């Protein structure tokens, strides 16, 4: 068969028909009758005006259908559907639609709801309530869920808050006067002192290394006059050592479980008798108060059992004791009134560390939830929320300037926060493992010390946050660090059962 004899086939366009099928069939029959040459091609010359109108109507209907589909898709994009799968299912149930198809995921279910709402239009959406009626339930719900709930506190709390306010105002005035004097100093004088301090830090060397216990040491601290050192360990013993020769002077017995932290009470002389001079806490929730002339505790603080008390700290006045507990709360104890004056909640998980500001007006707590909170002791309010760490916070401390806060975390970083600006100002990528503790220089705040599970402690400058010195020598992870009040000594405690005393050459 030649090419000229081959049949010619015309490709017919696919047409979407709307309306009655009877009219469509009649139109096809008319086309077959009007086929002149029998080749399957229509003789359009024989089409009447009505036929042309029918074609135009079909094209118009097709265009209208496409426009309607575009509008529906546009409307679907503008419809806001909740990403909560429970709310999506509830909306489908209200529309009398199946809440789930076989193999349908949350994303597919959300898309299906969008398609349904766009197809139903305004009829499928719930009727909008008047503005006044709509605002009223929302305001009531906000008051119910977000309003602060108050209850009347004990009289001891009111007495404590008034006392703290009067105490902190005088100290704040003194601190601001000292800050003003530093500002008036010549910049060359300040720079010279910083250079001299950095040279001294470079000369820092281990003065003494002592085996502190038969089991790993968990904490250490130095008293105000830098003559005594207090350590605790997993053996349930606390020991008092002399500084700088590190000879054992006193062993404190009484805990029945691992001791987690110890603290010296400020303002107590070394020769005082039957006066609370030290405090310790343990994993079983017990807190004990000790005196210099007795190896047994002179008072026990109950109320935390069975939750672990991780850290404790004395208020700068020495009258109050703060404890961080693993029941997601921290507590303030008044040693003069001999009772708990504040049981503060706010963290979602265990509270691990606590520190007081030098004025005594506020304190900061760090939790296993990775967040820190700054509390005003005079009002009980949380005045700053420390958000930025990726994991648990294990150490916090206030700078002597009163507004800088340092926090060490399990994410291996140390962050610096500004209480005045209420935001984070710097992140120090400090160690290769979690940071167990952090301490500021007490008599100037010119440097910062961090201890870590990478077996080292590091010293950082205050303004530039540059590393000044790395204290290495322990065989186990470091769990605690402290700086003496005269900045002459730095003590580090380790899981290798030893503590080291570092001093200037």
Automatic annotation (TrEMBL):
Enumerate the InterPro entries for this protein.
PRP4-like (IPR014906), PRP4-like_sf (IPR036285), WD40/YVTN_repeat-like_dom_sf (IPR015943), WD40_PAC1 (IPR020472), WD40_repeat_CS (IPR019775), WD40_repeat_dom_sf (IPR036322), WD40_rpt (IPR001680)
Lineage here is: Eukaryota, Metazoa, Ecdysozoa, Arthropoda, Hexapoda
> Which UniProt keywords are present, listed alphabetically?
Repeat, WD repeat
Q: Does the keyword Nuclease apply?
A: no
For this UniProt entry, the molecular function terms from Gene Ontology, in alphabetical order, are: U4 snRNA binding; U6 snRNA binding
Basic and acidic residues: bias regions: 130-145
Any single Gene Ontology cellular-component annotation: U4/U6 x U5 tri-snRNP complex
SUPFAM superfamilies in the record: PRP4-like, WD40 repeat-like
Give the start-end ranges of region Disordered.
Answer: 124-150
Transmembrane domains' residue ranges: none
- Report whether Nucleus shows up as a keyword of the record: no
Question: Start-end of the WD repeats?
Answer: 252-300, 309-343, 344-385, 386-427, 428-470, 471-505
Q: What is the protein's given name?
A: Pre-mRNA processing factor 4 (PRP4)-like domain-containing protein
Q: Where is the Pre-mRNA processing factor 4 (PRP4)-like domain?
A: 83-137
Q: What GO biological process terms does the UniProt entry carry, in alphabetical order? A: mRNA splicing, via spliceosome
């Amino acid at each position: 068969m030649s090419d000229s004899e081959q049949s010619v086939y015309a490709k017919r366009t696919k047409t979407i028909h709307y309306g009655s099928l009877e009219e469509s069939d009649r139109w096809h029959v008319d086309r077959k009758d009007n086929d002149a040459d029998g080749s399957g091609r229509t003789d359009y010359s024989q089409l009447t005006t009505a036929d042309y109108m029918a074609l135009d109507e079909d094209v118009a209907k097709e265009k209208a259908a496409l426009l309607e589909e575009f509008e529906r898709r546009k409307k679907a994009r503008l419809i806001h559907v909740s990403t909560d799968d429970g709310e999506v299912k509830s909306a489908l149930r209200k529309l009398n639609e199946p809440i789930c198809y076989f193999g349908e995921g949350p994303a597919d279910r959300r898309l299906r709801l969008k398609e349904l709402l766009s197809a139903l239009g305004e009829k499928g959406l719930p009727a909008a309530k008047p503005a006044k009626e709509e605002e009223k339930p929302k305001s009531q719900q906000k008051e119910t869920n977000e309003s602060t709930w108050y209850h009347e506190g004990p009289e001891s709390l009111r007495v404590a808050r008034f006392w703290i306010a009067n105490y902190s105002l005088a100290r704040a005035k003194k601190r601001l006067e000292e800050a003003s004097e530093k500002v008036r100093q010549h910049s060359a004088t300040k720079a010279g002192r910083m250079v001299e301090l950095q040279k001294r830090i470079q000369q820092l060397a281990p003065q003494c290394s002592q085996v502190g216990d038969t089991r790993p040491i968990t904490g250490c601290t130095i008293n105000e006059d830098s003559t005594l050192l207090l350590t605790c360990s997993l053996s349930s013993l606390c020991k008092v050592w002399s500084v700088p020769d590190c000879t054992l002077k006193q062993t404190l017995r009484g805990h029945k479980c691992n001791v987690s932290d110890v603290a010296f009470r400020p303002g107590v002389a070394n020769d005082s008798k039957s006066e609370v001079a030290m405090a310790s806490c343990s994993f079983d929730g017990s807190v004990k108060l000790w005196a210099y002339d007795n190896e047994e505790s002179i008072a026990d603080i109950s109320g935390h059992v069975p939750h672990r008390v991780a850290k404790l700290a004395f208020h700068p006045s020495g009258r109050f004791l703060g404890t961080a507990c693993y029941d997601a709360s921290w507590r303030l104890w008044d040693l003069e009134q001999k009772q708990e004056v504040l049981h503060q909640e706010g963290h979602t998980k265990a509270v691990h560390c606590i520190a007081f500001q030098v004025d005594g007006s506020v304190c900061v707590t760090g939790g296993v939830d990775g967040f820190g909170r700054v509390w005003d002791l005079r009002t009980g309010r949380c005045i700053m929320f420390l958000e930025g760490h990726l994991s648990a916070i294990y150490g916090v401390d206030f700078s002597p300037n009163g507004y800088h806060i340092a926090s060490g975390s399990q994410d291996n970083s140390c962050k610096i926060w500004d209480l005045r600006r209420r935001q984070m100002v710097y992140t120090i990528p400090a160690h290769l493992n979690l940071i167990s503790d952090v301490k500021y220089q007490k008599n100037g705040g010119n440097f910062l010390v961090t201890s870590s599970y990478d077996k080292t402690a590091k010293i950082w400058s205050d303004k530039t946050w540059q590393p000044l010195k790395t204290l290495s020598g322990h065989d186990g992870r470091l769990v605690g660090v402290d700086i003496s009040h005269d900045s002459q000594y730095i003590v580090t405690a380790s899981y290798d059962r030893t503590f080291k005393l570092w001093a200037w050459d």
